[in-house]
Amino acid sequence: MPKIIPLISSGTAGPLGILHLPRLWQKASLTAAGKSHPDYPSCAPGYDLMVLSALKIDAAAFTHFIQSEKPTYPQCEAWIIARCGGSVDAAVVDALNAAIVGYHHTDDVRTSILSANHIPDEGKILDAIQLNQLDDWLAFHQQEIA
Predict the structure, then answer these.
(1) Mind listing the pLDDT tens digit for each residue in 45-77?
(2) Interatomic CA distance for residues 81 and 18, integer angstroms
(3) What are the CA-CA distances from residue 102 to residues 15, 50, 128, 132 (Å)?
(4) How far apart, in Å, are the Cα atoms of 55 and each of 36, 70, 140?
(5) What contacts 32, CB < 8 A, 6 or more positions away?
(6) Band of the pLDDT at 81, cuts 50, 70, 90?
């Protein structure tokens, strides 16, 4: 059976308003269940560690929580709130979200993703969120549809 490619966008936020956290939860949950596609590790450098670092959550502790508790998404957010002293600082969330939205891949990565999707690189798609979605959708299509 093919491994699952996560399709929750890094541009998606849950009730706490933290971008990428739902995707991180999904990736970690799939990994814990042995169902994650190998190209999509959880707690990986990039957005995963940006989120955990901003929230001052240890990646190993997060992974252990997901593996041992298999939480729903709201339970994951509740666990994070508890680790953040009962609330998540709005300024931290705002700064994190701005960093996620403002992150751009290198020119080589952008060109590669656009080329693989047969999209001309006209300088219109620069943000990593959109590029990552295109990459995910193509990987999903190649694995599941093509």
Answers:
(1) 999 999 999 999 999 999 999 999 999 999 999
(2) 12
(3) 21, 13, 8, 13
(4) 24, 20, 30
(5) 63, 66, 67, 70
(6) very high
Angle at 18 between CA 102 and CA 53, to 5 degrees: 75
Structure tokens at 63: 């992974």
**Rounded to an integer, what distance in angstroms lies between the CA atom of residue 143 and that of residue 145?**
6
Q: Which residues have a Cβ under 8 Å from the Cβ of 53 and sit 6 or more positions away?
A: none
Q: Which pTM was predicted?
A: 0.95
- Extract the tokens encoding 47: 């957005």
Non-local CB neighbours of 51 within 8 Å, separated by 6+ positions: 18, 19, 20, 21, 24, 57, 96, 100
Question: Could you tell me if 53 and 115 are in contact, meaning their C-beta atoms sit under 8 angstroms apart?
Answer: no
